[in-house]
Amino acid sequence: MSETPESADDAGAAPDGGDAAAAVDAEAVRHVADLARVRLDDDEVETFVDQFGDILEYFEALDEVPETERTEELVNVMRPDEVEEGLTQEEALSNAEETEDGFFVGPKVS
Amino acid sequence: MAADYNAFITEATIDGADDGPLADKTVAVKDNISTEGIRTTCGSEMLADYVPPYSATVVDRLTDAGATVVGKTNMDEFGMGTTTETSAFGATRNPADPDRVPGGSSGGSAAAVAAGEADIALGSDTGGSVRCPAAFCGVVGIKPTYGLVSRYGLVAYANSLEQIGPIAGTVEEAAAALDAIAGPDPHDGTTRDLTEVDGADPDANYAAAADGDIDGLTVGVPTELFEGADERVVETVEAAIEDLEARGAETTEISLPSVEHAVQAYYVIAMAEASSNLARFDGVRYGNRAESDGNWNESFAESRDEGFGAEVKRRILLGTYALSAGYHDKYYQKAQDARAWVRDDFEEAFADVDVIASPTMPVLPFELGESLDDPLRMYLADANTTPVNLANLPAISVPAGEADGLPVGLQLVGPKFGEETVIRAASAVEDR
Prior knowledge:
The complex is a heterodimer of chains A (110) and B (432). Chain A is mainly alpha-helical. Chain A contains 3 helices and 2 strands. Chain A has helices spanning 26-35, 42-59, 89-93; strands at 99-100, 103-104. Helices cover 30% and strands 4% of the residues of chain A. In chain A, strands 1-2 form a two-stranded antiparallel ribbon. Chain B is of the alpha/beta class and 432 residues long. Chain B folds into 2 domains: 2-258 and 340-430, Amidase signature (AS) enzymes (Alpha-Beta Complex), CATH 3.90.1300.10; 260-336, no CATH class. Chain B has an 11-stranded mixed β-sheet, sandwiched between helices. In chain B, helix 3 (107-114) packs parallel to helix 4. The two termini of chain B are 30 Å apart. Classes of the chains: A mainly alpha (110), B alpha/beta (432). At the A-B interface, helix 1 and helix 2 of A face helix 7, helix 8, helix 9, helix 10 and helix 11 of B.
């Protein structure tokens, strides 16, 4: 999924305070599924509401974690910008369901 | 036979070089590790027909070392599970007891080795997925330090946590496979060149470290990783640790208070990374594509509904939720704090001890179907393995004995790039 700017949006009502209830309702599950581009049927929504309630309640214990000094030892890894061998066009397209003139064919945009 | 345990998704051969340190060895490869020309499904309907145009670095290194690939092994879908029951290709059975799960997510790899279908297997370990099945099937599994082994060609689930690791019948065989696959790879910028890492040994010989010599070794025993574990598991592991003392090791009780939060932190981070990594499966470049009359977004949602099983959907949705506005600080930031805390805890512990010992799994192998409808229960079984991934450390699971006829694994954790130390300690457990 390349164009999903709204994925960063709100996934429902944000918690007002530190101890907001973890439970989610069917509407919240459907909204998150929509953001993640996963279609769910009603049975799945119902199951997920129950399971997400349990799991998110368990995640609540993260509130007890003290804030930590985080010094990440991260460095950028670069190589000289030189042309190297990669996949051929044929190889890159070999697993696509639909192609045309060397391009991927996607579903219609609207 | 392999078919009885459903250890393989695809049986196919890639010939190895004529000679090399692994000549005459057969190797089974987890089905999330790319093999050129051989389908690589990740245990998912989404990739049931996906045939990679290239091989993972680890596959090339094993075949260059002389090993012959014999097939692609069953796994929890995209590595998401602790039992290998979430595979779209059916559950794998545990050769030690066919009514029980082999553990997961690399269950097919461990089962293939335990059943004698391969000498060595590759798994991937994001939160315990090599060590758990090794423990449940009574074989050896190594989770390398983050950055020791290339992930090029591994289909990503949670890339800040995962490493490819070997499974074998003995510590020495697993270590020899690690010798073959370890080392920097220009195709994976997170691999490290050990000549540039303080305190690491660039000339490490892992197979040679399996010499059983633990005289003077200090073993830390963290109370937190024994609390809440099945009594039969605790007794078996404690007996193995006592035997290490008899062989000249010193044991000392230690405390790792942060690990109480490891499972929560692990799942928040892994789900968040999964929601992002699995966004690539839209049915356009590869993978399942639904017959859809809908627009771009509807077509993607239908392709993903068809292609993904319940556990994968669950993790993508929870990850999306944990990263969304209003919840990011509450879940994701706190999980990163917990990750740093776990890392600091281990670092402090390794100032005083050489290795840290615990049960690999706090439970005996589940019966088939037992945990499938209760995801939280399955997650909690990862209590002892996930801290290691959060801290980027090396660990090994080695058979400690049996309880009620079922295998019990002992986990040994070492400091960063301390693979030789955990291998040496594990070989002493095996020699008892």
